[in-house]
Write the structure tokens for this entry.
Amino acid sequence: MSARATGRTPFGRGASQPQTAAFTKLQLLLLAAVLGSALTVIYAAHLTRQLFSDSQKLSERQLILDEDWGRLLIERSTWADHDRVNKLARMQLSMYAPELKDVELVRADGRHAQ
């Protein structure tokens, strides 16, 4: 007699509705878990690409700002150059260094030094 004729499966068990229903529920549960996992992987890959793109944009911006900072440091040193300030003070403000005879030293206690 064949397995079909006896209503038994080749593994010695009879096919019953509750086992088939449980097997189908397990398959659906596993399918849902696999799909959920796949969607999570897709989202993580998308997020990684987006964050990498943002990182690249910020790196480019940092390079631009570093170049601007370097130019500003050069400009500041140019504007604060002692010779330039001295020249502008003499020409535009008519300022001159005092003669040595016009300089008075003042002590910390407020008395004039002689």
Observations:
- The first helix runs from residue 3 to 6.
